[in-house]
């Protein structure tokens, strides 16, 4: 999973340098085909496959959800762009944390394809649920070492994030993004870095 994650990140860096600028062509039909409108259509479905890395806002001993400082996992997304700039999506991911953690959420997406390029920055925000977080104890009385045990199977969560997409063809691209996940209580919040592949139709 780490190799996949860093491989996609390195490939994105390499390809952005060659594809990020304006497309030049002396043949007009090809130039028209490679316009922003062809790389990013007004209406399209996107299906994504990610490798992900999560890290907590607290140290290992203080985090109440993941039970670890960081975790690796995988993610699947499905999005529908009802215009070139706006869309909605659903996502789900799994993390190999102290206990396995799963997530399901829905998001509103804003995308801005840069004119004359293959590149589109995007931002998203939404909410959902987390499943099977670590069952940890909160210290409620330091003097007598009294604990309160948590065994909830689900927690509500909100998230917001931003990223960048690079289309290699009108139907295939590379995506990288970062999101911050806000869960019940400030000791449960965590960040997620994702890197993966996009299939657009």
Describe this structure in words.
The chain has 201 residues and is mostly beta strands. The chain has one domain (2-19, 46-200): Porin. It has helices at 2-19, 28-33, 36-39; strands at 44-56, 70-81, 86-96, 100-111, 119-131, 137-141, 146-149, 154-169, 172-183, 190-200. It has an eight-stranded antiparallel β-barrel. Strands 6-7 form a two-stranded antiparallel ribbon. A hairpin with a 6-residue loop joins strand 9 and strand 10 (190-200). The longest helix is centred in the first third of the chain and has 18 residues, at 2-19. The radius of gyration is 20 Å and the shape is elongated. The two termini are 26 Å apart. The model is unreliable at 25-33 and 144-149 (pLDDT under 50).
Fold topology:
Layout: H1 2-19, H2 28-33, H3 36-39, E1 44-56, E2 70-81, E3 86-96, E4 100-111, E5 119-131, E6 137-141, E7 146-149, E8 154-169, E9 172-183, E10 190-200
Antiparallel strand pairs: 1-2, 1-10, 2-3, 3-4, 4-5, 5-8, 6-7, 8-9, 9-10
**Percent of residues in β-strands:** over 45%
Report the helical percentage. Answer: 10-25%
Main β-sheet, in a few words? 8 strands, antiparallel, barrel
Please, what is the average pLDDT?
A: 80
By CATH, the architecture is named Beta Barrel
Determine and state the CATH class.
Mainly Beta
| CA-atom Rg in angstroms | 20 Å
Number of domains: 1
Distance between the termini: 26 Å
Structural class: mainly beta
């Amino acid at each position: 999973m780490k190799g996949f994650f860093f491989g996609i990140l390195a490939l994105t860096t390499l390809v952005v340098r060659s594809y990020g600028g304006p497309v030049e062509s002396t043949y007009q039909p090809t130039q028209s085909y490679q316009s922003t409108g062809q790389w990013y259509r007004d209406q399209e479905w996107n299906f994504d496959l990610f490798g992900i890395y999560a890290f907590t806002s607290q140290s290992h001993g203080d985090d109440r959800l993941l039970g670890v400082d960081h975790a690796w996992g995988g993610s699947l997304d499905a999005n529908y762009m009802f215009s070139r700039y706006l869309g909605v999506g659903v996502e789900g991911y799994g993390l190999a944390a102290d206990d396995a953690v799963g997530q399901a959420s829905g998001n509103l997406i804003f995308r801005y394809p840069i004119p004359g390029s293959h590149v589109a920055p995007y931002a998203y925000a939404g909410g959902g649920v987390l499943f099977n977080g670590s069952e940890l104890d909160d210290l409620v009385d330091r003097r007598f070492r009294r604990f309160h045990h948590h065994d909830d199977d689900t927690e509500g969560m909100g998230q917001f994030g931003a990223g960048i997409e690079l289309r290699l063809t009108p139907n295939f691209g590379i995506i990288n993004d970062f999101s911050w996940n806000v869960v019940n209580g400030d000791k449960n919040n965590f960040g997620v870095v994702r890197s993966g592949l996009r299939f657009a139709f």
